[in-house]
Amino acid sequence: MRFVTKTIHAWLDYPVALALIALPFVLGLGASHPLALAISPVVGVAAFLLTVFTDHHLGVIRVLPYRLHLAVDLVVGVLFLILPFALGFTGLDAAYYWLNGAAVVAVISLSKPESEMVSA
What we know:
The radius of gyration is 15 Å and the shape is globular. It has one domain. The two termini are 21 Å apart. By secondary structure, it is mostly helical. The C terminus is likely disordered.
């Protein structure tokens, strides 16, 4: 049951990128490891740029295929799931990365492949 279309995904991209940039500061991440505060904003900036350059209706400079965008998102989701173990994040730091990683992997898992999408 894949219901996350390219359009829905595009609408999620910008707010998620901005949240990845801001939330670590709002939540006060970094108690267990300084990288817990630093990684998410860097990934957020990269996610914002990825969205700007993705070939979907909210892309500004549409040069990257949507398939590549999904692949990068999946890699980031898996990375976020691994980081707490690899870097020793605990508490809120670990929970933040695990929840974000799980959410990204879930969205990718629920995304319709382009072959199933009808062009508008």
